[in-house]
Design a protein that fits this description.
Four copies of one chain form a homotetramer.
Chain A: H1 2-26, H2 29-35, H3 50-74, H4 81-97, H5 102-109, H6 115-142, H7 151-164, H8 173-189
Chain B binds a DNA duplex through residues 1, 3-4, 7, 28-30, 38-42, 44-46, 49-50.
DNA sequence: GATGAATGAGCTTTCATTCAT
DNA sequence: CATGAATGAAAGCTCATTCAT
């Protein structure tokens, strides 16, 4: 029973790695099994179907992301919303770049899997996002974040930028640092220079975006 | 002659729509043909292969995105870098949300197609990105954008957030406006409140992210 | 009506050429039509189906072969069987190498076409072969050919060697001459040196093939 | 492990049989699999593609032909060129008529398969033919074969006649014997009666073929 | 536990053929 | 006469899945 546990874990790791790099459709069970010196059908001893295996990976990805993120935040419980947000970004970023492949697999595959399958992940995804929304709401309330942003929307944009960095692999340590640097910079302070005041942009065209 | 042109266009539209919503692998030729009341093999009258069809869609997506974006920028030729950036964001955003599905198809499928196929799109994609890099470089040089950002990295993060919004369809007009609003807000000024100073974040953990 | 006749002929020529070089299955109607600056379906104005077109070519091939061969024989009506055979070989050889492609098309495709189709050619093929059988019978009777050969079998072997030469194209004139030379040499006198007597070989192994 | 071996062999046999009788294009994987009570895709467990299966058959055909032929020659090592030639003819003839279908499959399909595929067989085919050329060269040198024949050309004509016999199946044993008889007769001594002298034919028309 | 062997569903692709124009 | 446009049949191939061992 111990061996079974280990094999199952190995299969999940192998699957996570392939899913992260090749996506859902290009990852065959034979490929996954091959990575751990087994043959495709053997995986059916551990998982009822390909989708169950993938679901386990993506679920693990969502869990790991949430845990790494909340752990990062727990280091400074008295932080204000903006600080919590920064900690969350760092935590999730680390989950993407310094951990196993499950987070990246989730990022890559969440929208590639069949929709009925995604349905089963939705609640976990939702509660993951809710953490971000709550952080932002906190920041809006304590005045550390702008008061004209909606948590639902802001959180998605932040996550989109974060998730993008998952595509960039095999980068030097400096590059990873630079990514984190820019990410935090954009999310927190934007790219406009400090002495150039910028409000939230109106969406109509005829109004100039920024007043200087 | 005219009918062929129309049918070909219809096929491209149908393909763009399915590719944007279902991705490369779930979009079969039978599906595409079905959308325009035809059968799968009929498409071979217009395209030599599935990949040629898809390539036509993605290419159109890259072209449309660039054109819409540059057109938006052309409205204000004397803009500084930050203003150009804002205009570019708006232009590309419009290409995603107010136009045909080709831009969304490109966003969704660019990384799903086989790599030798993607190779053929790479130059177009590169020149698209270079426009963004140049905008940012301009802004850095004219002082309207922060001087500690690298165009290559910043442009990718901005595009990641923009591309994300392509997933959100069937939203109310208000939602789309809100998306654009938040997008510009984040990219330009970040989410931290104005009176809370925030520098670019150092990547070491023990240094507090922001100084207030 | 004259133009139609010419077009039909051109299609037959084009088909013959392609059938001879690529065989029945690799020759598509689009290919044939393309050779005469037309599109595939246009051929249906002249032929009810691909097989009817091919049948016309193969029939023409059998006719041409027969005619060229009999013409060659007619030059020397008083010839004995062996001389007739030589003339026939030369005539057929010429039909293969110095004429249009219909003979080669027939040689290449006769056994590639569907069997029910071949059925329709069989009588013509049979009467073609019968000419050879009669020649040989004549030779056996007049003593100019060995008296231990069966016309049915001998004629097939001769034709097999002849037909083989159809594969060899783009050869120099000297090569074609050499082919004819060896062909006649083998068929008439065999390859064994003249002073080495050789009877017809018994098929049992333990009996030496030749007595010297 | 044993069963796989048997099934693979059965598939090769089935393929050889169908390839020999129907040719490359009319032989579908479903047909081959059907012959051994399986379904088409199952063959992919044993062969990576149709062409790999066919290649295995044709390769086996070339090997069997060569082996059977050389074995026949080995029985009489002191034979002169003419005797070796006779032995080779008998050996190859036996490979065609008394063995499995692989030789016939090769004869039928070698020129039907795509040319890039044939390329892979070419070296084997070449070395097969070279054996024949060497036999003939030996015979020319030791005086047992005519000194005006070129090995390259003579060997092809002999093989053409031999290969032709592959088409004739379901013949009585007597017929097969008769085929071999005539084959050797033609190749070695030709069909002209013994007392009728016949030189190698000049290719010009105005010179009588034979002098009697 | 693991796999060898086999299958069925579904895909892309080719091509002879049809039919309105 | 000729073709543009479309189709159906059939092929090769991939892969998740099953099942006996």
């Amino acid at each position: 029973m111990r061996k079974a546990e280990r094999t199952r874990k190995a299969a999940l790791d192998a699957a996570a790695n392939l899913l992260a790099d090749q996506g859902y459709h290009r990852t065959s069970l034979e490929d996954v099994a091959g990575k751990i010196e087994m043959r495709g059908p053997s995986l059916y001893y551990y998982f009822a179907s390909k989708d169950e295996l993938v679901e386990a990976v993506l679920t693990a990805g969502l869990d790991e992301a949430r845990e790494t993120m909340t752990a990062a935040m727990a280091a400074n419980p008295s932080a204000n919303g903006a600080e919590m947000l920064a900690a969350a970004v760092r935590g999730y970023f680390r989950s993407i770049h310094h951990k196993s492949d499950v987070t990246r697999a989730n990022i890559r595959c969440y929208y590639e899997v069949p929709s009925d399958f995604r349905q089963r992940l939705r609640s976990k995804m939702r509660s993951f996002i809710e953490i971000w929304e709550e952080i932002i709401e906190t920041g809006v309330n304590d005045g550390s974040l702008r008061n004209d942003i909606e948590p639902a929307m802001a959180s998605r944009l932040i996550l989109a930028a974060l998730n993008y960095t998952a595509q960039r692999r095999n980068q030097s340590a400096t590059d990873v640092e630079s990514m984190e640097h820019h990410l935090l910079g954009m999310v927190l302070g934007g790219f406009v220079a400090e002495d150039v005041p910028v409000g939230f942009a109106p969406s109509t065209d005829d109004v100039p975006l920024m007043r200087s």
